[in-house]
Amino acid sequence: MARTGTALGAPAARREGRQKVTGAARYAAEHPLPGRAHAWPVPATVARGRVTAIDAAAASDLPGVLAVLTHENAPRLAEPEDPTLAVLQGPAVPHRGWFVALVVAESPEAARAGAAAVRVEYATREHDVTLTTDHPGAYRPESANGGYPALREHGHPESAFGSAAVRVDVAYQVPPLHNHPMEPHTSTAHWDGGRLTVYSSSQGSTAVRDTLAALFELPADRITVVADHVGGGFGSKGTPRPDVVLAVMAARQTGRPVTVALPRRFLPAVVGHRAPTLHRIRLGAGADGRLTSLTHEVTTHTSRVKEFVEQAAVPARVMYAAPHSRTSHRVVRLDVPTPSWMRAPGEAPGMYALESAMDELATELGMDPVELRVVNEPETEPDSGKPFSSRHLIECLREGAARFDWSRRDLRPRSRAEGPLLVGTGVAAATYPVLLWPSTAEAQALPDGTFVVRVNATDIGTGARTVLAQVAADALGVPLDRVRTEVGCSDLPAAPLAGGSSGTGSWGWSVHEACARLAARLADHAGPPPGKGLSARADTAGQADAESSYARHAFGAHFAEVAVDTVSGEVRVRRLLGVYAAGRILNARTARSQFVGGMTMGLGMALTENSTMDAAFGDFTESDLASYHVPAHADVPAIEAHWIDESDTRLNPMGSKGIGEIGIVGIAAAIGNAVHHATGVRLRELPLTPDKILTGWAG
Predict the structure, then answer these.
(1) Is-contact 119 75, C-beta < 8 A?
(2) Which residues lie closer than 8 Å to 76 by C-beta, 6 or more apart?
(3) Which among 558, 688, 580, 545 is positioned nearest to 629, based on CA atoms?
(4) Are 15 and 467 in contact (CB under 8 A)?
C-alpha cells in the first residue's frame, strides 16, 4: 500500500468531540443500570485516633437507605499494595477525612441524608500537620517518586559556593495544591454472578482491574473495567482511589449496581494532592554567569499511611552545567492525607524554584536572563553524563525571545509604568522527562477496506482516540477516515495508564508495531481480507522499557508579561508565550490545546491556587471550587503556543515526546520573574496574591 504521509501532524479534529458537546458521551456515573443504587461516604471528623463506636440505627431507618457499611460489617479485602485503599477494614483514623462508613440508598439524596445521620465516636490522639524545614521528624528517604535517588552529589558544592564570585542563597515555598478535575472521582460497580463490571473515572482501567483482582481475590479475566470517557484527572486518577473499592464493596453487599460519586469537598483528603514543598537553592557563578555550584534542597511532607515524596529537586539534575552540585530530598511523616501525583509532579514546583533562582542570579550579575541560561547549556545531562537524545532548549529560548520582542526589554526593574500599573516581563525554561512503558495493541483489517485498532488507552480529554488513529493510518499508509480506534476498556489489549505524559508515546509505539505487522501481512495477501479480516498484535515489552543510553527529555521556554496594580496589588497576566521542543508533533490541533491547557494551569499555580492546612483541625480549609480558586476566563490572556521541528528517532517509531505536562512547568517562574521585573519586589511564596504584593511593598 502506498503511504499517504499526511496522517501524522495533521490538525485532525477530536473524534469524540460531538459526543461530548451533545451529551452522548457517558461518564462513570451515567450508566443507567437497572436497580442501580447510590452510596455516600462518611468521613472522619478527627485528625488522628480510632473509631470506638458507630451508631447507624438512625441512618438505617431513613426512607430509601439500603445498607450502612462500616469496618465491622464491610467485606474483607486482601492487604492492598496501596494502603490508602484499605477502606473500612479497621477502626484506625490516620487523618481527618478518612472514610469510616458508607451509606447505600436508592438515590444520592437518600444516601447523603443517611450519611449525615450516622453517629461516630472516636478516641483521639495528638496530631501534627505542620511542615517546617527544621522539623525533628524530617528524614532522607531511600528514593523520591519515580525511583530517583533522594540525594545526588557531584564535586564539592559547598566549597565551590563559598568561593564563587557571585552567589544566590534563597528559599521558596509552594503550598499544597489540589487536582480538582471537573468530573469528581466516580465509580459504578455491578456484579453479575461471579463477574464484576466497573465503570470508573480512571486514567488507567488495566491498573484498576488488576488492583480489584488482588483486593477481592478474583481472577482478572472475571473483571471488566470501563473508562470510556474521563472528565479530567491531572494525576489524581492515575491510580485506583477509594471510590472504586467502595462501589465494588457496596455492590457485593447489596446485590445491586452501586454508584459512588465522591463529593468535591471530600477529594482533598482521599484522592491525593501536591504536597507542599520548601526549597533552598544556592547558586554560585563566575562574573561571566557560568555556574560553578548548584544546590537544591527540598523538604516536603507525606502521610503516615504511605510514603510519597515529591521529586522536586530532580529537574536541577537535568538543566544546567555546574561542575559542583547537590540535589536532595527530605520528608516528614505527618497526620495528613496521602499526597500523590499532580500535574507535572516534581518538575512543576522544582522548576518554579530553580528558574526563579536563576532569575535572581541574572539580577545579581546584571545579565539578561535568557543569556544566562544559554551560557549554562550542558553538553550532556549533568547528573548521568549521558548524551541527550535531543535537546533544543537554546532554540526555544531564541525563538521565544524573537516572538516576544524580548530584545526591547529594559533590564531594570520598575522601568515601565502605565498610570497606577507597573508592567514587567519574565522568562523561564521548562523540562519534562520522556517516559515510555510497555503496551500491547491489536490492528485488524476488515473486508470492507476499513481498519480497527484496539488498545486499552485512556482518553482523559487529550484526544488519544484521534492521535492513535493517526499513528495507525500513517503506519498502514491509508486515509485517516478508514481507521477506527477502540480504547477505554480493560478487555482490550493491556496498556499503561494515561499519566506522566507517557500515554501517546507508549500506546502509539504498540499501535505502530501492530499496524506495521498488519501491513506486511496484507502485502503478502491477494485480494480483500477474508471473513472476519486479518489482524496483527504487538507487545513492546523489552523495547519500550529497555534501558536507554540517552537522556530523554522535552524542553521549552516560557515568556510572560504582567501588569501589577500599585493600589490593589492585583497581578494581571497580559501575555503568555511558550515555545517547545517536544519531539514530532502528531496532531497540531490537539497539541496546541495541550500546551495552552498546561500554560493555563501554570497561571493558576502562580496567581490563584492555594490550599491551607489547618493546624488545629488537621484538614485543608480550601476544599471546593468556591475557596480553591482556579483561573476563570477573565484571568487568562490570549496564549501563544509554538514548537520547533524536532523528530527524535531515539525514542519511539513516531519520534514523539509527551506534551501533556511540559506546558505547566516553567509558567509560575516566568510570571513570578515578570512580577519582580515590574515591581522590584521579589516574592518567593506562591501564589502571588494581592496581599503578598502589598506586604512586599510595605516591607
Answers:
(1) no
(2) 89
(3) 688
(4) no
Which of 393, 496, 153 has its CA nearest to residue 296?
Answer: 153
Write out 100-144 in H/E/C secondary structure.
EEEEEECCHHHHHHHHHHCEEEEEECCCCCCCCCCCCCCECCCEC
Residues with catalytic function? 661
pLDDT lower than 50: segments of the chain: 1-4
3 state DSSP class of 478: coil
CA 661 – CA 66 distance, rounded (Å): 43
Structural contact between residues 293 and 282, judged by C-beta atoms closer than 8 angstroms: yes
Q: Are 519 and 444 in contact (CB under 8 A)?
A: no
DSSP string, 198-240: EEE--S-HHHHHHHHHHHTT--GGGEEEE-S-----TTTTSS-
- Compute the half-sphere exposure of residue 247: CA atoms within 13 Å on the CB side of its CA: 32
User: DSSP labels for 238-276?
Assistant: SS--HHHHHHHHHHHHHSS-EEEE--GGGHHHHS--BPP
Closest of 304, 300, 302 to residue 314, by C-alpha: 300
Coil, strand or helix: which one is 617?
coil
pLDDT score, position 528: 82
- Beta-bridge partners for 54: 120
- DSSP structural state of residue 538: E
Compute the half-sphere exposure of residue 351: CA atoms within 13 Å on the CB side of its CA: 35
Q: What is the DSSP letter of 636?
A: -
Angle at 403 between CA 401 and CA 408, to 5 degrees: 60
Taken as a whole, the chain contains a residue count of: 699
Q: Which single residue is written with the C-alpha cell 501481512?
A: 521
Q: Is the link from the previous residue into 447 a cis peptide, with omega within 30 of 0?
A: no
Give the model's pLDDT for residue 6.
65
Joined together, the cell numbers standing for residue 684 give: 518567593
CA distance 575 to 665: 17
Pairing of strands 483-486, 451-454: parallel
Burial code (b: 16+ CB inside 10 Å, e: under 16) for 235-247 equals: bbbbbbbbbbbbb
* Gap between the Cα atoms of 26 and 439, Å rounded: 26
Query: According to DSSP H, which parts of 255-392 are helical?
Result: 267-270, 347-365, 369-375
